[in-house]
């Protein structure tokens, strides 16, 4: 009998007096649970379909409104020349001419002043709308939307003779700060075509604002920041670039999260407008190192060299009076080269003394006017 019974037949338990009733109850409870799950699923489907229906109805209404706007007759745009009476206005429509037109009842005639832009129906030439004043988009961009509430120290100028570690300090800042570091040379901003240099400066600060907080490092700033003189037409593009830089340093755009570090070895030729407080608030001089500093620099650059015992670094530093940090490093390099030429595995005191003589001789023959400037 159990084999002939279909799946709709409830199971019948023959063991015990309460077997048939408990089996029927269990069977119908399972059926009820299954039907309840089906009802819940159908209810969820119904709610989802209702939400989709509402979205489609909203789109249909939007499309109907757009269609209604497209079906409306077009309008001519003109300017009010004169109010002729209670409901008459003289309107100039380019390039057709001037017309005396009627004014719609919903239009306030007191707003129809001279040069007011209005819309006229193309079939009846009736004034039915007052348009806002037309402003060139380039002019509208000049409006200041947000004025900075306070100002912060933005610019730092590092100046001093060549080879004293100005760019090296900027590298250290880039390594130890958790911000975007942007490096640019002043020569890269000097462009051939008119407006290209100022555009690059403007886009440079736009990129810095997008990736704020950020630091802009400008090396050799004297190439674009030199003093302005009359009669030099060849430097007009350089002056435009500098004017844009001045505007970005002290303009209406927010520069709270942007700092600028500039480097130069000719602070005497920089323009006063660039050096004034508010643009360059800190000016840090990098002089040539003294004897103690040269000794420490020698120890740093000779740390990985195989030196002979008894080398007096202070004596070597005393022989390099007026040398820069780069020249001290060059002495260590030349001393190593002297040892390599003699096929030695170590560097001696004599190698350092010959290196000092060679480097100082090169420096004495080269650029004496600049050395006198920084003494």
From TrEMBL:
Q: Name one GO cellular component term.
A: proteasome complex
Residues of the AAA+ ATPase domain: 152-290
- Which keywords appear in this protein's UniProt record, sorted alphabetically? ATP-binding, Coiled coil, Cytoplasm, Nucleotide-binding, Nucleus, Proteasome
Q: Which residues form a coiled coil?
A: 32-66
Q: Where in the cell is it found?
A: Cytoplasm; Nucleus
Q: Which InterPro entries match?
A: 26S_Proteasome_ATPase (IPR050221), AAA+_ATPase (IPR003593), AAA_lid_3 (IPR041569), ATPase_AAA_core (IPR003959), ATPase_AAA_CS (IPR003960), NA-bd_OB-fold (IPR012340), P-loop_NTPase (IPR027417), Prot_ATP_ID_OB_2nd (IPR032501)
Q: Which Pfam families match?
A: AAA, AAA_lid_3, Prot_ATP_ID_OB_C
Q: Which GO terms describe its molecular function?
A: ATP binding; ATP hydrolysis activity
SUPFAM superfamilies of this UniProt entry?
P-loop containing nucleoside triphosphate hydrolases (SSF52540)
Entry-linked Gene3D superfamilies: 1.10.8.60, Nucleic acid-binding proteins, P-loop containing nucleotide triphosphate hydrolases
Describe the family membership recorded for this protein in Swiss-Prot or TrEMBL. Belongs to the AAA ATPase family.
* Name assigned to this protein: 26S proteasome regulatory subunit S4 like AAA ATpase, related
Tell me which species this is from.
Neospora caninum (strain Liverpool)
